[in-house]
Design goal:
Shape: globular
Number of strands: 25
Distance between the termini: 92 Å
Radius of gyration: 32 Å
Structural class: alpha/beta
Largest sheet: 5 strands, parallel
Strand content: 5-15%
Strand order of the largest sheet: 5-2-1-9-21
Helix content: 10-25%
Number of helices: 11
Length: 664
């Protein structure tokens, strides 16, 4: 008899607990496969401490292969389930596709950010469900405080050091509490020139903070927040989000560069494609976590609507405590369906909640006993250490170091804004160039030239590699300004997709067919690219008008000479193009070369084989400039600067004493 095949989709609280319990119960008599986009289990309750710089990211990431030795780990995202064929189709991290057959399937895909139909939120807000989002928020908050501290304008300083958190639930409350402490610590070291201090706002339409929890916990949390200067506004939310700020439902406009979306979560969209009975986006199951009519299909965690036997007619809420307990019961019932043991119904007992508010502050009600202050803080951290399936010593060590040492407020720039869009089916995975977009979005083609969520928090002084709209400006994009090699620069060979380049041959400004009117004629024909050493052609490198030998008149000067390569700057301070492709340069924003394409409002300059800014010779063939071809003539364009002192006003004589036609 073959070994049963058990496939678990998702390694969150429910999926991880199911895999670990199944590995123990089956005693290696079943093939257990865990499908997950990442190779770690994320302990989500400590994620706000990662964003605040208390814990390092790997402290809250528990290795799946290291803690589940008898479980096969497959990296990928499930994108289709064939219930009749009993197969799961997935896409791997590098775009490869695969299929996993199963005898028993456990759906524990978890949840994603909950979106509301509010204008501008999907484009300008960021969620807080995965490790990439926490790392991005940490870098972004650090950057905004540093930029605000250096700003002289009070309006700009106020906008940069204002942070808006929407959603006063468990996550939003902790993000605001830890964030206020983090930014205050930064300002104490480097006070702002305008004398301002960071401002945090916590918004929610609910009547109180953490409405789903005990009222005493809510009062404690709100009191701590207000003591730290957090502007708590209940009954208020965001009406519209723009690039420069947000408009609240009470009509107030708030200038800000940061909008953190912690409104809530919704089940993973994967279960919606199954065509099975649903309850508010969750898959309906019986008290044994089994899908009715499908004895081989189980569901647990946030994607499952599990009946609450303690409150008939209701379903268990989407919390980590329930998901963790779902996993254990689900594993027992999967094994029972294989003929070992008895089925169990899920019945829970409320053990209370703990909320870490940073420092020695916390709110907790273990077993219904309300606590606050340092005692609650000790209980909260003790609970997290007991609940974590790994890394306990490392987490405790980070807490100890944070208590005695100052935090390191640095921005690493590892996660960009466009890689953590709010509307993502996999918030635990940062989007990378070349990775397929979420359904309904255009695919990325090597570089995120058109991101799904433009970065509303970018600025002209932000780190290199990202513009104000979230697009990349890395030098690796060879068809972008300042790229490698800059083929669209003056004197260079135009890029294939640039005007005048070797792109679509029938487009205006493209390279037409050879020997056609306006095209690239035969090299020895009139008007074409003549043979070298011919009049109007591309002369030999030591001849006048060509690319002369270095250190010769009109040549590309030596690097230590005036107007030399790279180190030379024109009157505007920008380096002059040298006629050769420059090395790739990463900059904070694209800076087109003088006379190159892509500079709005400026007519492109014709450029020959010499340096940009020098007097061009009258071309006899098509223009080699990056922009559209200009009319040939002896007069330079209107915006052409006067020739520099290194340009001979008269004819240039040959060095061998012979006069050649076309020297002048």
């Amino acid at each position: 008899m073959s070994r049963p095949r058990i496939v678990i989709v998702g390694a969150g609280f429910a999926g991880y607990r199911t895999a670990r319990t199944l590995s123990r119960l089956t005693r290696h008599q079943a093939d257990i496969t865990l499908l997950n986009p990442t190779d770690y289990f994320l302990y989500l309750p400590l994620l706000p401490q990662v964003a605040a710089g208390i814990l390092e990211p790997r402290r809250v990431s528990v290795s799946l292969s290291g803690t589940l030795p008898h479980v096969r780990l497959v990296l990928g995202e499930a994108d289709g389930i064939d219930l009749d064929g009993r197969t799961v189709h997935y896409t791997g991290p590098e775009g490869e596709e695969g299929t996993l057959p199963y005898d028993r399937l456990v759906l524990a895909a978890g949840s994603v950010n909950k979106l509301l139909p509010i204008p501008g939120v999907a484009e300008h807000a960021h969620g807080f469900r995965g490790l990439p989002e926490a790392l991005y928020l940490r870098d972004h908050v650090t950057r905004q405080v540093e930029l605000a501290a250096a700003a002289d304008d009070r309006a700009e300083c106020a906008a940069r050091c204002t942070f808006v958190v929407v959603g006063a639930g468990y996550t939003g409350t902790e993000v605001a509490a830890h964030g206020a402490m983090y930014t205050d610590a930064q300002v104490r070291k480097h006070p702002m020139r305008t004398g301002m201090r960071p401002r945090w706002m916590l918004l929610d339409v609910a009547p109180r903070v953490m409405p789903e929890m005990d009222e005493r916990l809510s009062r404690t949390a709100e009191r701590v927040l207000r003591q730290r200067g957090v502007d708590v506004r209940m009954g208020t939310s965001v009406k519209e989000a723009t690039h420069d700020g947000v408009v609240l439902t009470d009509g107030t406009s708030v200038d800000t560069r940061t909008l953190v979306w912690c409104v809530g979560v919704r089940p993973d969209p994967l279960v919606e494609s199954l065509g099975l009975p649903m309850e508010r986006g969750r898959l309906l199951v019986d008290p044994h976590l089994q899908v009715p009519g499908r004895p081989e299909l189980f569901a647990c965690g946030d994607v499952a609507a599990v009946p609450d036997l303690n409150q008939p007619g209701q379903y268990t809420p989407m919390t980590a405590q329930h998901a963790w307990r779902h996993g254990k019961v689900c594993a027992h019932n999967v094994v029972a369906s294989l003929g070992r043991g008895q089925r169990r119904a899920y019945r829970h007992r409320d053990m209370g909640f703990v909320v870490d508010l940073g420092g020695a502050k916390a709110a907790a009600n273990p077993l219904g006993v309300a606590m606050s202050g340092p005692a609650a803080g000790a209980v909260t951290r003790g609970y997290h250490l007991a609940a974590m399936p790994g890394n306990r010593v490392r987490v405790a060590a980070d807490w100890l170091l944070d208590a005695v040492l100052p935090r390191q407020a640095v921005q690493l720039g590892l996660v960009r804004s466009w890689s953590v869009p709010l509307e993502s089916s996999s918030p635990e995975v940062a989007r990378v160039p070349g990775r397929p977009e979420a359904p309904g979005r255009p695919e990325e083609a090597g570089t995120p030239a058109t991101p799904a969520t433009p970065d509303r928090q970018r600025s002209d002084t932000e780190p290199e590699g990202e513009q104000a709209d979230g697009t990349r400006n890395d030098a690796a994009a060879k068809n972008q300004p300042d790229s490698e090699p800059a083929r669209s620069r003056p004197g260079g060979e135009p890029a294939g997709n640039q005007p005048g380049g070797a792109g679509a041959r029938s487009r205006p400004g493209s390279q037409p067919a050879k020997n056609q009117p306006g095209g690239e004629p035969a090299k020895a024909q009139p008007g074409g690219q003549p043979a070298k050493n011919q009049p109007g052609g591309e002369p030999a490198k030591n001849q006048p008008g060509g690319e002369p030998a270095k250190n010769q008149p009109g040549s590309e000067p030596a690097k230590n000479q005036p107007h030399g390569e790279r180190a030379k700057k024109g009157p505007s301070g920008s380096p002059r193009a040298s006629g050769k492709p420059r090395r790739a340069v990463e900059a904070a924003g694209p800076r087109p070369a003088r006379g190159g394409a892509g500079r709005p409002g400026k007519a492109p300059r014709a450029a020959g084989a010499g340096s940009a800014g020098k007097r061009p010779t009258a071309p006899s063939g098509p223009s080699r400039s990056a922009g559209p071809p200009t009319d040939p003539g002896p007069e330079p364009p209107a915006n052409q600067p006067p020739p520099g002192p290194d340009i001979a006003p008269g004819p240039v004589k040959r060095t061998d004493g012979r006069a050649v036609e076309g020297d002048s």
